[in-house]
Amino acid sequence: AAFSRPMAIFQKVMEHAVARVSTDDESQDDTGGFIVIIKDCFIGMVFGLLTISCLIFLDHHNIIHLQSAHNFREAAFQSLNNPETIANLEESSGMKFMTSEQYNSWQKEIDEAISKMESAKQKLEDRTKEAETKST
To answer: How far apart are CA 63 and CA 85, in angstroms?
Structure first.
């Protein structure tokens, strides 16, 4: 009855997993060694990503100089400025990338169209009322 709710099951599984990962007992069974290896790999990847991120950040602010970081940044900008890459990204994401000027002009056009529609709707209502009063 205690495990009838999915959140209770999830909570128990997570508590057990955290307890297994956070313990460094030598008395664990065979699966304990596997979990320790996974934990070490995960921690290593996190620290590696943090180190690389810090180095790229420091290089970006010209505190240190890493030629590979400059090359990576230039390659990324060239790739993202390629029209074929932009077209592929637009197609796969289902979105349209545009400049801020283009967006602002389209937004202005939409706002003007909305105001024209509202004024036309008001005119239609007024003329409908006039027609109803004339017919009665």
So the answer is: 32
| HEC sequence for 32-93 | HHHHHHHHHHHHHHHHHHHHHHHHHHHHHCCCCCCHHHHHHHHHHHHHHHCHHHHHHHHHHH
Q: Would you state the structure tokens that stand for residue 53, as one six-digit string?
A: 């991120």
Q: Supply the pLDDT for residue 13.
A: 79
Q: Which residues contact 25 (CB under 8 A, 6 or more apart)?
A: 32
Contacts of residue 20, defined as CB under 8 A and 6 or more positions apart, other chains included, come to 28, 32, 35
- pTM metric for this prediction: 0.38
Q: What is the pLDDT of residues 26-72, one digit of tens each?
A: 555 555 678 888 888 999 999 999 998 888 888 888 888 888 878 88
Instruction: Give the integer Cα–Cα distance in Å for 50 and 47.
Output: 5
**Average per-residue pLDDT for the chain:** 84
Q: What is the dihedral of CA 14, 19, 21, 23, to 10 degrees?
A: 180
